[in-house]
Amino acid sequence: MENDCSLPAGSAPCIDERQFSIMTTGKNKSRIHCADDSLAGAVSQRACVYSGARVVLNPVTDAVHLVHGPIGCASYTWDIRGSLSSDSEMFRQSFSTDLKERDVVFGGEPKLAACIDEIVEKYHPPAIFVYSTCVVGMIGDDIIAVCKEASHRHGIEVIPVESSGFISGNKIVGYRAAGDALLKLIRPKEGETVEKTRKLNYLGEYNLGGEKWLVESYLREMGIEINVAFTGDSTVADLKKAPGACLNLVQCTGSMHWVAMSLDQEYGIPYIDVNFFGAENTAESLRKIASFYGDDEIMRRTEALIEREMKKVRPVIDRYREKLTGKRAAIYVGGAFKALAIIRQLKELGMEVMFTGTQTGKQEDYEQISSIVSEGTVVIDDANPAEIEKFLLEKDVDMMAGGVKERFLAHKLGIGFVDHNHDRKDGLAGFEGAIRFAREVYATTCSPVWERVKKNPFEEVQD
Ligand code: SF4
Fold first, then answer.
1. Most buried residue, 49, 186, 188, 298, by CB count within 10 Å?
2. Has residue 432 been placed in a domain?
3. What is the mean pLDDT of the chain?
């Protein structure tokens, strides 16, 4: 198979079949292949269906998250994302049915039912999410029926999350499974009503490093209350109040656009997209929210807040821009909303984005990304480590922003790295987050350690 002409000469993808999932901006106008199943053998950076669902639901703090599958799947736990809680820490516990060969042969349903009974007896949670994994999809356990019976038996919500990897190889399916589970959880029972309020729901915010709290403090200053976040620092009782909101904010569009559309259809709650990564994005999002309320006092408070915070952010960004101008960056993250925000922030810092990609971007997301990067930037959907390594070297990148799986790749190549996803402990959202991000980008890009790594200090030892 011939290589796509959208790639620079001598820059073929590592696997021929991937050629239409990689493009160079300005080279051609063809559409990038995206939202496909991962290519077998490519060992893509994208996580599985189950982990997509887990990312979305795990921040529900007082629920039990029970993984129905072999113990290996349960290694995906709270620690992998580290969203914070203001109260219950139940979500930090790991529960698994630990399926073994015997269960694979004879079925895992009795074990699942027994696990649920034990959890209810020991922990009394208000809800249990039961995640289906690859093995469960393969052996055909009916987790819907087991959850329904358990729900009747114990009088609590036992919600199946249909995230078997073998249904599809795409993490986006996991987002959808999690969205389905959330919609089931919040749907009022027959005869129940949820009171309408002037509060808003904040969708696609997972409270990593306390980011939900930070945005909440801005909104409070403006005179607006959050009803519930989906799902950062949420509880089962909070989530059940979701239909009472007057507006939905959507931050992580990949995981929550579909939920927002469903909430609009079912409960008549409109939604707007927001992005709190980067000072400019934060200011723009706060203005959008204020104008939805159409209240003069809210508008006045919003402008005062933005003016005050921008006065703090601008000099810091200017200072780091002096050091970072002309440095070359790469971005590989889960969703497009984050990629777009990081591109803007790095450009504000004077850096050039040499390549960028996402795990779950859609056609329109890539069109937006292509419109804000320079000509010649490589754009990749669902990259694998070999491709990331290749373009990091080819594009002579100084700093990469990504998640835990990209960190070691960058470090081993002697390239600075900013974790914008899994392992970070500090919030990068809002005005404070923009300052922290600039500081982190500077510290890693300009660290003298990379000179030592590139010089190969082992040679000195051998001498
Ligand atoms: S669900 Fe499948 S792909 Fe995901 S962790 Fe478990 S075995 Fe691996």
1. 49
2. yes
3. 91
